[in-house]
From TrEMBL:
Co-factor: note: Binds 2 Mn(2+) ions per subunit in a binuclear metal center.
Positions of substrate binding: N80, R81, D123, S161, T165, H196
Protein residues bound to Mn(2+) 1: D8, H10, D42, H198
Pathway it works in: Glycolipid biosynthesis; lipid IV(A) biosynthesis; lipid IV(A) from (3R)-3-hydroxytetradecanoyl-[acyl-carrier-protein] and UDP-N-acetyl-alpha-D-glucosamine: step 4/6
Name of the coding gene: lpxH
Membrane topology, record value: Peripheral membrane protein
Gene Ontology CC annotations of this record: cytoplasm; extrinsic component of plasma membrane
Broad class of the protein's primary localization: membrane
Pfam families (UniProt xref): Metallophos (PF00149)
EC code: 3.6.1.54
GO molecular function annotation: manganese ion binding; UDP-2,3-diacylglucosamine hydrolase activity
Organism of provenance: Rhodanobacter sp. IGA1.0
Keyword Cell membrane: yes
Protein's recorded name: UDP-2,3-diacylglucosamine hydrolase
């Protein structure tokens, strides 16, 4: 038995092979026989609301609900691309929504789960935008717009994000070591799993004299990426080939 983690799939109609890989993986024996599947944010490139009538959300919902119907809990935490995803879609897709920064028992070890963007405190411009768009007032204003207007808004937001990424030093967009230490300290745990930075790795560090572990999930732009934690506590971070 094992617990599985994925993040940063950025599913989009323009990248059909990655969507097919997602569907294939969720139909696999590894997923259907797991203890749980966690999706830690940025499942899609842009989420414009639970009422989106495009094909992609329907395919996602069918894939995740099939996992839940097979008896495997599917936990979902929003990221910076899909933070408008709400209870209506979660119900349809069989998802259990998680707050960012929750602690779950992962194969016997308390583990802090985050999307990861709040840890990138050196990117002050991003953090300012994040604070603005995460207010209920902002969400209500966007969701009141017609679907086509929301699609146009999302396209502009993606373009702005790419421009920011291209003009910002990579080190600024990575996590801040003090923010990581504070998160682990505040949660009272010695392991953190997150995504967002697209830099898959297992980092061993020390916080307040204790050995700790930070596991970063990979993205799904060119191939898949999954973290598997088995019932003996073994950790495997690996890629999934397309095709």
């Amino acid at each position: 038995m094992s617990t599985l983690f994925i993040a940063d799939l950025h599913l989009d109609a323009s990248r059909p092979r990655i969507t097919e890989l997602f569907e294939k993986y969720l139909a696999s024996d590894e997923v259907r026989q797991a203890d749980a599947l966690y999706i830690l944010g940025d499942l899609v490139e842009a989420w414009i609301g639970d009422d989106d009538d495009a094909e992609l959300p329907a395919r996602i919902a069918a894939a995740t609900r099939a996992v839940r119907d097979a008896g495997v809990p599917v936990y979902f935490m929003v990221g910076n691309r899909d933070f408008l995803l709400g209870e209506a879609f979660a119900e349809r897709a069989g998802l259990t929504l998680l707050d960012d920064g929750v602690v779950h028992d992962v194969q016997g070890r308390p583990t802090l789960l985050m999307h990861g963007d709040v840890l990138c405190t050196d990117d002050t411009a991003y953090q300012a935008v994040r604070r603005q768009v995460r207010t209920p007032e902002w969400a209500a204003q966007i969701l009141a717009m017609p679907l086509e207007a929301r699609r146009a808004f999302a396209a502009k937001a993606r373009a702005d994000s790419k421009a920011h990424t291209g003009s910002t030093m990579e080190s600024i967009m990575d996590v801040n070591a003090d923010a990581v230490a504070a998160a682990l300290r505040g949660a009272g745990v010695t392991r953190l799993i997150h995504g967002h930075t697209h830099r898959p790795a297992i980092h061993c560090l020390e916080v307040d004299g204790k050995p700790t572990e930070r596991i970063v999930l990979g993205d799904w732009y060119e191939h898949g990426s999954v973290l598997r934690v088995d019932d003996r506590g073994n950790v495997e971070l690996r890629g999934l080939a397309v095709g």
